[in-house]
Amino acid sequence: MAILEMKNISKAFSGVYANENVNLAVEKGEIHALLGENGAGKTTLMNILFGIYTADSGEIYWKDKKVEFDSPREAIEQGIGMVHQHFSLVQKMTVLDNIILGLKQEGLFLSRMEARKSIVELAEKYGLLVRPDARIRDLSVGEQQRVEILKALYRNVDLLILDEPTGVLTPKETQDFFEVLRRLKSEGYAVIIITHRMSEIMAISDRVTILRDGKKIKDLVTSETNPTELSMYMIGRELQESFEIQKQQGSEIALELKDVHVAKGEKAILEHVNMTVRKGEVLGIAGVDGNGQTELAEVIAGIRKITSGDICFMNENIQKDSVKQRFEKGISYISDDRHADGLVIDMSLKDNMLLKHYDKEPYSKKGIFNKKPMDDLADSAIEKFQIKTTGTSGKESIVKLLSGGNQQKIIIAREVTEDAKLVIANQPTRGLDIGATEFVRQTLMDVRNSNRSVLLISADLEEILALSDRIAVMFGGRIVGVLNRDEADVQKIGLLMGGVTKEAMQ
């Protein structure tokens, strides 16, 4: 018996359908996966259900009653909760205060005591262990996600919507998270999980609904399907299973870090890092988030200054060079946070493509912009990287109106050019669908095969193992081990990620 039915839901933006006559049914006590490429309409459909958007047409039945939620508050009051891809927690406040924020009676001392007790009981029951008095800013990403789920459960929801819930989790956190979902399912909760990862769909879901270009393509029982069939329905073709990895042409060093140290006050963020990246190589950087990977990328790109040590690129000392100077020498940077420092989301696609080229010919001369080369650059990026724009806006599309995957493609189109000798790719496929992920990975492999260099930082160990010639593992701001492709496996990398040194494993 379906607890939720969405019938013939349609929603258009600027005359283009995000959802077109979509039907979805979810049963009590099931984990239902919603699968589709970036821009397929998955999040839009859930935002309609959660009261963020209003459907242009169609009907929603919740517990056999026709409903129309005008706000998330109304959806929550009726028993529907949603955890978004980007968490909505107040960083300076405690776990307890975030969970009870906005609830009636929260100011009374007694209600806070009761809330603490209830939260601890919920946390223990579902394995969502987190300290009520801890401040959000001091928690890991995995712990913050637990707070979001606790927040929904505390409001007595019957249906939990999770948008890309594992995109920022480590393999161990993902396993723990799946155990939480299985407990919720056994308790009779309905769960909708939006994800791009086939392995996760096969591991955790009961049924799958596939969207493509805003339309429902297929409903499948997970136990009766496989990743090949899912990808065929999702993108209309089979995925490329492997990459052409050409033999390395030599061992010439492109980038070298010598005893690089970065301190903030008395705390070491990067601790005496020694590392090389060769020409024609992908060096993978693995590690639990927060162990210095992003700081390492920022140091090489020139965003963060080093306390001591040397950075050499193409046999030239560059630690005093600016970000722009390093870019001009061939160092490109794909940030892990596209909104904070990868894009200006209120600007157009065309303007974002020009952020690092606006003062160069042929795009400008003596401070005067040249429109045709600017247009050609944006049009070329849209075609080559298959960027889906809004309606008929094309290159003039405002970036914030594009899906996350298409935003990421803009960054990659701008950074991965023929002039890039070293591409620093920090979580380049996070939040991307399988088709876009395949495209990005092949793009990075093409850089490597053209005898240029890639520094790949990724929380996805499958990605690290598939693309890397060597794998360096970081723990506590240090590189604790470097493995060659032929000796690396998930178990060895996992031990290094936990702080066990390579020498201790032997």
Percent range for β-strand residues? 25-35%
Largest sheet data: 6 strands, mixed
- Helix and strand content put the structural class at alpha/beta
Flag low-confidence runs.
Answer: none
Radius of gyration: 24 Å
Q: Could you say which overall geometry the principal axes of the C-alpha atoms support?
A: globular
Report how far apart the termini are: 55 Å
**Order of strands in the sheet with the most strands?**
6-7-8-3-9-10
Structure, explained:
This protein has 506 residues and is of the alpha/beta class. Helix content is 33%, strand content 27%. It contains 18 helices and 22 strands. The strands form five sheets. Strands 6-7-8-3-9-10 form a six-stranded mixed sheet, with helices on both faces. A six-stranded mixed sheet has the order 16-19-20-13-21-22, with helices on both faces. The longest helix is centred in the first third of the chain and has 18 residues, at 109-126. The radius of gyration is 24 Å and the shape is globular. It starts with a strand and ends with a helix.
Task: Kindly list the characteristics that best describe this protein.
33% helix; six-stranded mixed beta sheet; 506 residues; alpha/beta; 22 strands
Task: Give the SSE layout.
Blueprint: E1 2-13, E2 16-27, E3 31-36, H1 42-49, E4 57-62, E5 65-67, H2 72-77, E6 80-83, H3 95-100, H4 109-126, H5 141-154, E7 159-163, H6 171-186, E8 190-194, H7 198-204, E9 207-212, E10 215-221, H8 227-235, E11 253-264, E12 267-278, E13 281-286, H9 293-301, E14 308-313, E15 316-317, H10 323-328, E16 331-334, H11 338-341, H12 349-353, E17 364-365, E18 368-369, H13 371-384, H14 404-415, E19 422-426, H15 434-449, E20 453-457, H16 461-467, E21 470-475, E22 478-484, H17 490-497, H18 502-505
